[in-house]
Amino acid sequence: MAVKLAGGARRSRGGRRRATPMADINVTPMVDVMLVLLVIFMITAPLLTVGIPVDLPKTKAEAMQDPDEPLVITINKQGKIYLQETELQLDTIAPRLTAITNNNPEAKIFIRGDKGIDYGTVMGVMGELTSAGFRAVSLIVETPGDSGDSGSGNAAAPAKKKTTN
User: Can you give 44-57 as a three-state secondary structure string?
Assistant: First the structure.
């Protein structure tokens, strides 16, 4: 008389089969949930990068190809100045950037200015940055061929945004 150790059904006295419990884990539902979460994060992640909506001016300049992540200063229609998503005053921009970049004058800084603001506001910010010693200051603009989303400034399509020095 041999003892059957692995799986299968056993016969009882009446000739009926008795089911044995299955010890395997069904991972299909877990994989389905993970794939759905992956798709959700892939769609929402690019939408979360820039939060201040601005109407960028258009230009025919070529896009700069740069793998480093720059610091972004945004000036909205009301003339408020933001570093990433933090609102700052004009006189506090240079000390804050110096602290963030560890006094690195080669740090890349992009300025996004709404096309409805006056030229002096953008030049004031650029003047503060250059007087603090930053040399890699660029302006972000849109080219005429960009989609007409009225310049939400969203980074969902980063290949369309252009920068100029």
Answer: HCHHHCCCCCCCCC
